[in-house]
Design goal:
Length: 478
C-alpha cells in the first residue's frame, strides 16, 4: 500500500512529537523529583544530626525521665489521631506541668533558635517507650506544637529502632492530609555513657516545591501537546518544499539546543516569517526554551541556597566539637575520640592513658558568687591543665570535669605530670586572691593495660580521681 508524502510526513511528525514529548516529560519529571527529594532529604538529615550534636543531652535526659514517669502511670495512651477529643485532652493534661519546667523551656528555646537559623518548619525531640510507641518530649513549632507526652504508633519501617536505637530515623518523605508533603529525619541523642536518650527530629515542608514541580510539569505537558498539534497541522496543510525547509532549520536549531548551558541564541537568530503555523511553532518553541532556562536558573539558585544551608550546618557541627567556655574539646569530641581508641583496642594497637580532673567546690562558688565567677574558676583550672598537658588532647565533659587523653611519651611520665599539676593547683589554692582565683582540683589517671574498652580505662581513672578528692577532703583543716 502506497502512502502520499503528506500522509507519511504527518505520521512521522506525530510519532516523533509523541515520543519526544512523553520521554521529555517522563525524564524531566523523574530527574526533578529525584533531585528535589534528595536535596531535601540531605538537608533534613544534616539538620537532625547537627541538632543532636549541640542539644543539651542532660536536659533531654531529665525531661525524658519525667515524661516517661507520667506515661508509665497512665492506663492507656491516646494517640494524636484523636487530637481535640476529650480523651486526648484528658490524656495530655497529665503532662501539662512539664511545659513549665526549666528543661522544657530551655530545650524549646534552643530548638526554635535552630529552626530560625535554618528556616525549617518544625524541629522536635522524641523518644521511644521501649515497645512500639513514639513519644514527643518537646516540639519547637510556633503553631500547633505537639505537647510533651503526645503519642504516635511507631511506623513499621522504623521498628528496627527497638533493637538498634542508634540507627535513628533515615530520611523519609510522607504525604498526609493534615501535614501535606513532609520530609522527616531523626538522629540519636546520646548520654555520657553512649546510650540513646532520644531522637532529634527535623520536619521540612515540601508542599511549595511539590506545587511548583506539578505546575512546571503541567506547563511542560501542555506546551508539548500544543506543539504537537501545531506540528501535525502544519504537516497536513504545508507538505511542500516551502514548508519543509523552515521545519528543517527549526529542527536543526532544536537538536543543538541544550537547556543545561542555555544556548538559545541559535534559536533566537532564526529568521522564519512564513506567517503561518510554522512561525507560530517557532515562537512557541523559543518561548519554551526561555521558560526552561528560567526554571533551571531558579532550580540552580535553590540548589545553591541549600548548599549554603549545609555549609552552616557543617559550621555548627564544628562548633559542637569545641567547648564554648574554655575552647578545649567538647563532650562530643571526646566521645568520638573514644570510638577511635576502641577501634585501636580491637586491632591490638592501643597505647594510651586517661587523666581525670575535677574542680573542687564549683557549686559553692556558683551559689555564693554567681555562675560568672564559677566560669572564671573553670577557665583557670582549664588553663592549668593545658599548661601541664600541653601536648595532649584536653576535653571538658561536664560542668567541672575534664579529661586528658595521653599518648606516647606522656604515658611514661604521666606520674610526674600529675604531680606537677598538683603542685601548680596547690600553689593556686594557697595564693592571695578571690575565691574563684584560688581554686584547686582533684586529679587521677589510669593507663591502658589490656582493658576491653575505653570506658574501662575511664572508670579506673575516675576512681583514682575520686580517691584523690576523698584524700583532699580528709586533709582539709577543720
Amino acid at each position: 500500500m502506497k502512502y502520499s508524502l503528506r500522509t507519511k510526513t504527518v505520521i512521522l511528525i506525530i510519532l516523533i512529537a509523541v515520543v519526544i514529548g512523553i520521554t521529555g516529560i517522563a525524564v524531566s519529571s523523574r530527574f526533578i523529583s529525584q533531585l528535589i527529594d534528595r536535596t531535601y532529604e540531605d538537608k533534613a538529615n544534616d539538620i537532625a544530626h547537627t541538632m543532636a550534636a549541640i542539644i543539651d543531652a542532660e536536659r533531654v535526659k531529665k525531661l525524658r525521665d519525667e515524661v516517661m514517669t507520667v506515661f508509665d502511670n497512665t492506663k492507656e495512651p491516646v494517640f494524636s489521631d484523636d487530637w481535640g477529643s476529650p480523651e486526648f485532652d484528658a490524656y495530655i493534661a497529665q503532662f501539662a506541668s512539664l511545659e513549665e519546667t526549666e528543661e522544657f523551656q530551655s530545650l524549646r528555646s534552643q530548638l526554635r533558635k535552630i529552626q530560625d537559623v535554618n528556616d525549617v518548619d518544625c524541629l522536635y525531640v522524641s523518644c521511644i517507650d521501649g515497645k512500639d510507641i513514639f513519644l514527643y518530649l518537646v516540639d519547637g513549632a510556633y503553631e500547633d506544637a505537639c505537647p510533651p507526652g503526645c503519642a504516635d504508633p511507631l511506623y513499621e519501617e522504623n521498628r528496627e529502632l527497638l533493637v538498634r536505637p542508634e540507627r535513628g530515623f533515615p530520611p523519609y518523605i510522607t504525604n498526609t492530609e493534615p501535614y501535606g508533603w513532609l520530609v522527616t529525619a531523626g538522629a540519636p541523642i546520646y548520654d555520657k555513657e553512649g546510650g540513646v536518650l532520644g531522637y532529634a527530629m527535623a520536619d521540612i515542608s515540601m508542599d511549595t516545591v511539590r506545587a511548583e514541580q506539578k505546575h512546571f510539569i503541567t506547563m511542560l505537558t501542555a506546551g508539548l501537546a500544543g506543539l504537537t498539534i501545531l506540528i501535525c497541522l502544519a504537516a497536513i496543510l504545508l507538505v511542500n518544499r516551502l514548508l519543509i525547509r523552515p521545519i528543517n532549520r527549526l529542527s536543526s536549531a532544536a537538536k543543538h539546543y541544550d537547556a543545561r548551558v542555555g544556548n538559545s541564541s541559535e534559536i533566537d537568530n532564526l529568521t522564519i516569517r512564513t506567517q503561518d503555523e510554522i512561525q507560530s511553532l517557532y515562537s512557541s518553541f523559543k518561548q519554551m526554551t526561555h521558560d526552561i532556562e528560567g526554571y533551571i536558573d531558579n532550580l540552580m539558585k535553590t540548589t545553591n541556597e541549600l548548599s549554603q544551608t549545609r555549609l552552616k550546618a557543617n559550621q555548627m557541627d564544628e562548633l559542637a566539637h569545641r567547648d564554648a567556655l574554655t575552647g578545649v574539646g567538647s563532650k562530643l569530641a571526646y566521645d568520638q575520640e573514644a570510638e577511635k581508641l576502641t577501634k585501636d583496642i580491637a586491632q591490638g594497637g592501643a597505647k594510651f592513658g586517661i587523666v581525670m580532673i575535677d574542680l573542687n567546690n564549683l557549686k559553692t562558688l556558683n551559689d555564693s558568687y554567681g555562675h560568672e565567677k564559677g566560669n572564671e574558676a573553670i577557665k583557670k583550672v582549664c588553663a592549668m591543665i593545658c599548661e601541664v598537658f600541653d601536648e595532649s588532647s584536653v576535653y571538658r565533659i561536664g560542668g567541672d570535669e575534664f579529661v586528658v587523653i595521653i599518648r606516647g611519651d606522656d604515658c611514661r611520665r604521666v606520674g610526674q605530670m600529675v604531680e606537677q599539676f598538683r603542685d601548680i593547683a596547690g600553689e593556686a589554692s594557697t595564693a592571695d586572691g578571690e575565691p574563684w582565683e584560688t581554686v584547686n582540683a582533684a586529679i587521677g589517671y589510669a593507663l591502658y593495660k589490656g582493658d576491653d574498652t575505653v570506658n574501662d580505662v575511664f572508670r579506673r581513672a575516675d576512681y583514682s580521681m575520686y580517691e584523690c578528692k576523698k584524700l583532699m577532703k580528709e586533709r582539709r583543716p577543720a
